[in-house]
Structure formats: C-alpha cells, structure tokens
Write a structure and sequence with these properties.
Blueprint: H1 2-9, E1 31-46, E2 51-56, E3 64-73, E4 76-85, E5 110-119, E6 123-131, E7 162-164, E8 170-174, H2 175-178, E9 186-193, E10 200-208, E11 218-230, E12 233-245, E13 250-262, E14 267-276, E15 284-298, E16 301-313, E17 321-333, E18 338-351, E19 354-355, E20 359-369
Antiparallel strand pairs: 1-2, 1-3, 1-20, 3-4, 4-5, 5-6, 6-9, 7-8, 9-10, 10-11, 11-12, 12-13, 13-14, 14-15, 15-16, 16-17, 17-18, 18-19, 18-20
C-alpha cells in the first residue's frame, strides 16, 4: 500500500476532495466555484452530577470552505475540489475535563484534495484525499431532514463527555466510545463509482490515512447506494463493507441503512444496522431507528421533526449495552440560506459489574451556507 499512499499524496495540492453529489455552488459552467458554510451550536450537557454549557462548531457538519474547478473534456468532465474545515472546536470534542482552544487548525482538518473524472457512460473516477466508498452509508436512508440535530452518528452532539459511576466519579468511558455509527471516512484513496442504473450505484475504494503521521492502516471498501421514487414514496439506502488492514489486526465492518419518505404526508422512517470487530476484537453491533415528519407550516421554509433511538452492544467491553433516545427539530429559512435546529438526547450505558449515570444533552444551533 506504500505506493498507493505516495501516489495519492503527490496529487497536486490544488486537487480537492469531492463527493458523488457536487455542492450546488459548483453546478454550473466551466471555471472556479467557491462554497462553504458556517455554523455553530450551544450544548448543555448534564452528566448526573454537573452541567456544562458550551458554544462550539457543529461536529455533524463542521464549518468549512471549499473550491471547485471543472472543465469539460472529451467524453466527460474533469473536476478538482479542495475543502477544509476551519479547525474550530467541535461539539463532539468537549468534555468535563477539556479546556481546548476554540481554534486549532491542523492538516487533519483538510477534508478533500481531489481530482475527479466524471463520465456518463463509464462512471466516475476519483484520486486524492476524499470520501471512501462507505463514507455516508450509515446515514444514506435518513430522509427526515433533521440530520444536523441528530442522527445515527449519536456522538456528534456530546461525544467527548465521560459517564459517571453510581458514586458520581468520572469513568474513562465516553459517549464516543460506545455510540458509533460505523460509517466510513475520508482517506487518501483511489475510488470508482459506476453509472447509476435503475437507482443503484456501486462504489469501490482503496486508500490509507495520509494526514496522520505514522499510521500504517490500509482501507478497502465496497458500497451499493440506492435512490428512487415510487409514486408518492421516496426510497434511499446503502449497504457497505469495509476491511481495515493493520500490522497487528485486520477488521471488518458491515453497515446497512434504508429509509422512505411519503411525500404527501411528510412522514419518514429510517433503519440503520452495523456490525464490526474493529474496536474491541469482538463483534460490536448496533441498530438505529428514526421516525420523522416534515411539513410546510411556515412561510420561512420547511419544518422537520423526528424521534430516534440507538441500541449498541460490545463497543467498549464484552457484554456492555449503550442506549440513546432523542427528539430533533429543524427549520429552513430559505431567504437566508440558513437552517436552525434543536435536539435533546439521553445516553444510557450498562456494563457488567458497574452502574453508570445517564448523560442528557441539549443542542441548539444554526448553519448558513454560501
């Protein structure tokens, strides 16, 4: 994998990461397009003993800037994409003991540096830092419109917080340790997406972590995505398989997500499942469900409501259980190109021979796109 790692990294620094769907700011004639968004959220987290209120960047969709360059070439379109987050402290990185700087940009904040060759007939080819095939598969079926407020990535809201034991002492188990959507990530990689056929797109990628020094892990994944409409119903989903190759241990992860939206009523439902042995050496698994309702109640824009639940097993130790219940709301403000949102989630944890106090997390935030 050394050759791949080097070849990906030497891709010109002007090449910037892309996903299958381009930003709306990038969908136009040949040339440069700039885009981004700014957001933030206030979180209040109660661990059963203390309560802490913070303002941070939104980890579910970190503030970022990016640029596209695209040019039509024979047989397709050549695209270059650069994107970086601003390095602001995220909602998932704060804990009872943290005192991090609000701004701390590092090279790992570079999200995408990528060249893309897109053809209608032969599919799309990617080279550089960007999304692996499985990145986004866990949330592919979420059509609720409340993903900024809460989703299968439960730890985005308050992942850094530690649970307390029955006596009120902080433990070493954090929310992020036991709530994992097992979604794919961004790596330096080569990737190929097939053309879409009857709503199906197949994607495969191989890559390595080129932004973290001294990491020798290699990643290989395959994913199938689906989007289609059947009368009044929109359907979306994905199935992905990832193999992680380390010098000490190989691991496998399988994720599936499916959801539907009934457009006349605005009712939606989503189920996600995941299983992996990459965290503990034993099989970790979860199931996630979400029910949503969206309506045009206000002139400002569409309103979205949802409730969700997550149940995980064996993420920190054999036999443990992690459970979360949540309620989310989001509101589009179309004229300002903005979304405002709020949520409440309760996190519960059980492990053999120990009792843990629940952690309650409230979130209120906004995101503005440009």
């Amino acid at each position: 994998m050394t050759g791949l790692k080097q070849s990906v990294w030497i891709a010109p620094a002007a090449m910037i990461a892309g996903t299958v769907a381009m930003s709306s700011a990038a969908q136009a004639e040949d040339g440069f397009r700039f885009y981004g968004h700014l957001g933030g959220a206030i979180t209040q987290v109660d661990d059963g003993v203390d309560s802490r209120t913070e303002f941070n960047d939104l980890s579910a969709s970190s503030s970022r800037i990016g640029a596209w360059y695209e040019r039509g070439v024979a047989g397709g379109t050549l695209k270059f994409n650069f994107e970086t987050s601003l390095g602001l402290r995220g909602t998932d990185s704060v804990s009872q003991t943290s005192n991090d700087d609000f701004v701390d940009w590092q090279k790992t904040n570079i999200r995408k540096v990528e060249a893309i060759y897109e053809t209608e007939r032969f599919g799309t080819f990617y080279l550089g830092q960007g999304s692996m095939a499985s990145d986004g598969s866990a949330g592919a079926g979420d059509l609720s419109g409340t993903d900024l407020a809460g989703g299968v990535a439960v730890a985005d809201t308050a992942g850094g917080y530690f649970f307390r034991d029955a006596a009120g002492n902080l433990t070493t188990v954090s929310i992020a340790d036991i709530f994992d959507g097992l979604d794919g990530s961004r790596r330096g990689r080569v990737r190929y997406d097939t053309p879409t056929f009857n709503g199906f797109t197949v994607s495969a990628a191989a890559g390595s972590d080129i932004l973290n020094d001294g990491v020798d892990t290699e990643f290989y994944d395959l994913a199938v995505y689906y989007e289609n409409t059947f009368g009044d119903y929109e359907v979306a989903g994905a199935v992905s398989y990832e193999q992680t190759a380390k010098s000490s241990n190989d691991a496998e992860t399988v994720v599936a997500s499916v959801g539907t939206l009934h457009t006349p009523t605005g009712l939606s439902a989503n189920v996600a499942l995941g299983s992996s042995d990459r965290e503990t050496g034993v099989d970790s698994d979860y199931v996630y469900v979400k029910l949503g309702l969206q309506r045009d109640w206000f002139a400002a824009g569409r309103t979205y409501l949802s409730v969700d639940a997550y149940r995980g097993n064996d993420f920190d130790s054999a036999g443990d259980e992690s459970t979360s219940y949540g309620i989310e709301a989001a509101q589009d403000i179309d004229k300002a190109n903005m979304e405002v949102f709020a949520s409440y989630h309760q996190h519960q944890y059980d492990a053999a021979g120990a009792t843990f106090q629940d952690v309650d997390a409230f979130l209120v935030g906004a995101r503005w796109k440009f």
